[in-house]
Specification:
globular; single chain; alpha/beta; six-stranded mixed sheet; five-stranded parallel sheet; about 40% helix; about 20% strand
Length: about 280
C-alpha cells in the first residue's frame, strides 16, 4: 500500500435504494469541501483492495464494511454507515490489530423508543418486549431507560423461532404497549406481520423501529432515514478531514417519527402530529 492519501472513498455494498440515498445525502452535506469517490462492491464475497490509499473510507451497508475491514491497511480510518449495531459489533470484534472502526448504527437507541412510548401513550405503565439472543444484551439498558421514564419493562427471551409465540403471548398479557426491537429471531420477514396481528388481538399497540413497520400496522416508530444518516456521515467526514479524528461508533443523531393515523383513529386516540413528537423527543435527548 504505497502512494499518498487521496480524498475520501465511499464504498457501497450495492447500488440503488437506501444505499444511493445515503450517498446522495453525504455528497450534499460535504459539497465542495472534500474530494469524494464512490465505488460499488462487485460482489459480497469479492476480495476488495483500493487502488490508492484513501484518507478515509466510508462504507455503506454490511458487505462493504466487511470488505473494507478485511482489505484495508489498519491505519486507514473507516466509518461504517447503514449497518445494524449487531453486525458492526461482530465485524469490530474480528477487526485487524490496530484498527479502531467508527460507525453510525442503523438502529434506534432504546431510550429514544421508550421516550416515544412516554410521549405518545402517557397512561402506559408496562412496556412488553421479547428479546432474542442478540437483543438480550440490551435488557439492562432497556430496563433502566424504562425506569427513568416511569415505565416498567416486562420482558421474555425467545432464543429460537419456536419460543417466540409463547414468549410474545406471556409478555402481551401483562403489557400496555409492546416494543419491537431489532432482533433476527423476534422480528424478521416471516414473523413481523404475525407479531403485529398477535399484539392487535391482545389490544396492545406496537411501537416499532422502521417506517415500514408503521405501514404494516405498528402504532408508531422512531427511526433514522438514509438521508438523515447520510447528513450525519457528511458532518463526521468534514470534521475528520479537519481533525483526523473519528468518533466512537454511535447511534444516529437525527431521527424521524412515523405514526399510523388510521390505527390511532381505530383505537379512539387523537392523531398525533409527527413533527411535534419529533420536537418533544429532541428536547428529551
Amino acid at each position: 500500500m504505497t502512494g499518498h492519501c487521496t480524498g475520501v472513498l465511499i464504498l457501497s455494498s450495492r447500488a440503488g435504494g437506501a444505499y444511493d440515498e445515503v450517498i446522495e445525502s453525504i455528497k450534499t452535506e460535504v459539497a465542495r469541501s472534500t474530494e469524494l469517490r464512490v465505488q460499488y462492491l462487485s460482489s459480497a464475497t469479492a476480495i476488495w483492495k483500493p487502488n490508492e490509499t484513501p484518507s478515509l473510507v466510508v462504507t455503506v451497508g454490511v458487505d462493504a464494511a466487511s470488505a473494507a475491514m478485511q482489505g484495508l491497511d489498519p491505519n486507514t480510518p473507516v466509518l461504517s454507515v447503514l449497518i445494524p449495531r449487531a453486525a458492526f459489533d461482530t465485524l469490530a470484534a474480528a477487526k485487524k490489530e490496530g484498527r479502531r472502526p467508527s460507525g453510525i448504527y442503523l438502529d434506534t437507541p432504546p431510550h429514544r423508543q421508550l421516550e416515544l412510548v412516554r410521549q405518545l401513550l402517557p397512561q402506559a405503565r408496562n412496556v412488553g418486549v421479547v428479546l432474542g439472543n442478540i437483543s438480550s444484551r440490551d435488557k439492562d439498558t432497556l430496563k433502566s431507560a424504562a425506569r427513568d421514564r416511569g415505565l416498567n419493562l416486562v420482558s421474555d427471551l425467545a432464543q429460537r423461532d419456536s419460543e417466540l409465540y409463547p414468549a410474545l403471548r406471556s409478555v402481551l398479557s401483562d403489557s400496555d404497549v409492546f416494543l419491537a426491537v431489532p432482533d433476527p429471531v423476534v422480528i424478521n420477514g416471516s414473523t413481523a406481520q404475525n407479531v403485529l396481528i398477535t399484539a392487535f388481538r391482545s389490544q396492545v399497540p406496537v411501537i416499532g423501529f422502521s417506517a415500514n413497520y408503521v405501514k404494516a400496522g405498528a402504532l408508531a416508530a422512531v427511526y433514522s432515514t438514509p438521508r438523515q444518516i447520510g447528513l450525519e456521515a457528511g458532518q463526521i467526514i468534514k470534521a475528520q478531514q479537519r481533525s483526523n479524528n473519528l468518533p466512537n461508533a454511535k447511534y444516529p443523531r437525527y431521527f424521524s417519527v412515523g405514526v399510523n393515523a388510521s390505527l390511532m383513529r381505530t383505537l379512539g386516540m387523537p392523531v398525533a402530529d409527527e413533527q411535534a413528537l419529533e420536537q418533544r423527543l429532541l428536547k428529551a435527548e
